[in-house]
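Replying to the earlier thread about multi-chain prediction with a worked example.

Input:
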Amino acid sequence: MAQTETREPGLHTVTVTVNGKPFSREVEPRQLLVYFIREQLGLTGTHVGCDTSQCGACTILLDGTAVKSCTILAVQAEGANIKTIEGFADANGKLHPIQQAFWEEHGLQCGFCTPGMVIAIDQLLRDNANPTEAEVRRGLDGNLCRCTGYQNIVKSALSAGRKLRGEEPFEKPDLAMAAAGGH
Amino acid sequence: MFPAKFAYAAPSSLQEAVGLLEDPDAKVLAGGHSLLPLMKLRLAQPKLLVDIGRIPGLNYIRVEGNQLAIGALATYRDIQLSQVVHQNAPVLAEAAHEVGDPQVRAKGTLAGSLAHADPAGDLPAVVLALGGSIRAVGPSGERDINLDGFFVDMLTTQLQEREIIREVRLNLQPAGSGAAYLKFDQPASHYALTGVCAIVSLSSGTISAVRIAVTGVGPKAYRATAVEQALVGKAANEEAVKAAVEPVANGVDVQGDIHAGPEYRAHLARVFTRRAVLLAAQRATSS
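Result:
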């Protein structure tokens, strides 16, 4: 499906599926995918940190692969299947195992980098279901935490791996008890 | 940060893309991970982006004869995950793993990196060490450009204005050889302050053949031919290699910036060339 156009910059229609829902919007060619998602679709869970493809706060899944949406044009995503952080918890609000691990391991401080971290870890664990700590650190090369809270982010990634492999319950027993009001 | 305004076209074939490049202010967009950052900083302001990313069938990686044929849209991630690469030119996969970070590797392409010719890019050193050619398509058809001589200067290659890389053709690693890509990177950007690729063949413990290429040091990636010549016939030990790598930055316009001045970069080039040669030799099977 070729879109061709001559010199005059004009608007293009971009149609994508985001978190299972179809969206169609008019965009300027220079519209970046992260602003398309945040401002035109209203999904503000995807963050803009450095805006120079270093910090990873804008990480999304584009056709299943983690990418930095600040360095992709919205027009390049035409027809794509996108998943943002809003698509991780299920419809009833039950957290994704990676999110649950962040909650339990205190994997976030200010929370700004968290959406990008969760999605980078999702990619990492799909590539390598049982990573070593060193592999987790290497796999998070593209994500910066401005609170420098890396220790607990790495712990969260390792815990998420155990949960996804079934080596650890989805919910830590002491936390489950606290949620039920028991002490 | 937004780029300056431009028009956008997504042709469905390379021929159509070459036609659109008739516009002298047009640029080719593939993964966009070199071009879009420059456009956001307004260091590049093309009037038309020709997005080749929608052209089908260009992300292949396969063996053809004694070469790897890598399509224009194969990403670093594709290279990292390719069994064909791991079996035939593992140093290419090793180096692809060193580029940027996982998200960047999922979009950036080998062909785009070579066309861009960043003096601190990782892959230019690896393709020069492997050897091979660039298959470019332009208004008058296809031509093969030898990789030796492909890089002309900083951000400049032998590609003509309206030419697009269709395929990168790389020689397979010679049987029994060992290879390594080692770099000293700038920790935020992961660009190479110095990156060295060495491919070494051994015969009875001495170096019988070697190819070395260096990135991040001069205005373009280059073969260290003086070092290659000095190494042939030498034992693959620390002392002999250390002496042989001395001239690695001689005659090179060594670059300097806030991260590393020219003297330090030249020093890094010697240290990393020594380490890369020794590691490659360790990985080689003596015949």
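The longest helix of chain B spans residues 262-283.

Feel free to reuse this layout for your own posts.
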